Amino acid sequence: MPNILLDTGAFVALLDKSERNHQRVANFFRNFRGELLTTEPVLTEAVYLLGPSSRVQKICIDFILNGAATLISQSMESLKRATVLMEKYHDIPMDFADATLVVLAGETGICDVFTLDKRGFNSYRIHGKKAFTILPE
Question: What stretch of H or E contains 31?
Fold first, then answer.
């Protein structure tokens, strides 16, 4: 299986057993054999959404530290491209974390995204042209 991008909703659902999509994303992750890539804004958003418990936040951070996903930093150029995308997709709206994933898709050529945000990622385009494949189906 190819490498895929990890979005916030799937990340949170994977770690939070009380989340309604937990079983679906856990089943997908259990069978996944590629590499997950994500961005610092996605990690920040996931830590925030998981709540104020330092224990839960540590689980989220340990997921990255233990190599379950690769954390990709933003360059100045990728930050600029993210702001352009946020303006372009303001009507959806596109948040900063999503914008960084779309930029990362353009940089890496990865078109598969592990997300629960079907509305957004069905609308976003890589380099303005290529559609994402949303996982899990």
Answer: helix 22-31
